[in-house]
Amino acid sequence: MHTPSPPLPATSPSRATPGVRTIALTQPMHWVILAWRDMARCGWISFAHGLVLALVGAVILAVAHDRFWLLAGALSGFLVVAPVLATSLYALSRALERGEKADVGVVLKTWLNWQNNHINKWGNDYWCLVQFGALLALAGTGWVLTSAALITLLAPVPITTPLAFIQHVVLARDGFLFELWLALGGVLAAPIFASTAVAMPLLLDRRVTLMQAVLTSWRAVLANPMPMAFWAALIMGFTLLGLGSALLGLIAVMPMLGHASWHAYRDLVDVSALPERDALAKDAR
């Protein structure tokens, strides 16, 4: 098993910015293995997350199956905000790491009592989860609008259904619309991935601001461009597998990616100089 290198110096010592580590190219595969172990130890509560997300996807398909851009927008937004929706999966992996019970109580505490982990109820730190979710939703909306404008302007016929998109964009013999669409999506997805790679687990685990969490995520990605590109490819591949299996694969894929993201955070970020969020809450009480 690869041992991450010592943390790189923090870029802003005055703000106690966490250090980041460099990792081997194949380390993301180790995160996947650890994620499956966490899922086996958590049991049904882990798979229940995947079931809920699969059901949400099914509702989206049922409502918007004949409205292509509404469907694309809903699914894109759903995938973009997935790092926020997986917060309780990070909490479950953290509980296992600490030798604590990883049960439904951890999930309820994460979603119902998260405000107790914040001392200042009026500061930005208190609203970091809401802020981050809103920013991701805004980013997803921006991509959908940009994508719709591109396809509407350049497609040879009006695109109103997924089948029409496949026939006239994906399988089109003339032109490079699909390649242009993919390239544009990659350009817009890259900063979202860089901003979310470790931000949510860090916000859950330590007392940091939203800006610190996002900057740390960017630094971790920039310090490990190839391993993180490999990790992004794994995320995309597993997600497409889940979507392409009539959403049934999401029941296992989504919790696996959530647990793996926790282990990615633990490998990539050195938080030894930062106080735990739970510890601060206990001290405040």
* Low-pLDDT ranges: 8-14, 118-123, 280-285
Quickly give the structural class: mainly alpha
How far apart the termini lie comes to 41 Å
- Helix share, percent: 55-70%
Radius of gyration: 20 Å
Largest beta sheet: what is the strand line-up?
A: 1-2
Contiguous helical run count: 14
Give the overall silhouette.
globular
Largest sheet: 2 strands, antiparallel
Write down how many β-strands occur, each being a DSSP E stretch of 2 or more residues: 2
User: Order of helices and strands, N to C?
Assistant: EHHHHHHHHHHHHHEH
Q: Please, what is the average pLDDT?
A: 82
DSSP strand (E) fraction?
Answer: under 5%
3D architecture notes:
The protein has 285 residues and is mainly alpha-helical. Helices cover 70% and strands 1% of the residues. The protein contains 14 helices and two strands, in the order βαααααααααααααβα. The protein has helices at 27-42, 44-64, 68-80, 82-85, 87-98, 104-112, 128-154, 162-170, 177-196, 199-205, 210-223, 225-244, 250-268, 277-284; strands at residues 19-20, 269-270. Strands 1-2 form a two-stranded antiparallel sheet. Helix 2 (44-64) packs antiparallel against helix 3 (68-80), helix 2 (44-64) crosses helix 13 (250-268) and helix 10 crosses helix 11 (210-223). The longest helix is centred in the middle third of the chain and has 27 residues, at 128-154. The radius of gyration is 20 Å and the shape is globular. Residues 8-14, 118-123 and 280-285 have low confidence and may be disordered.
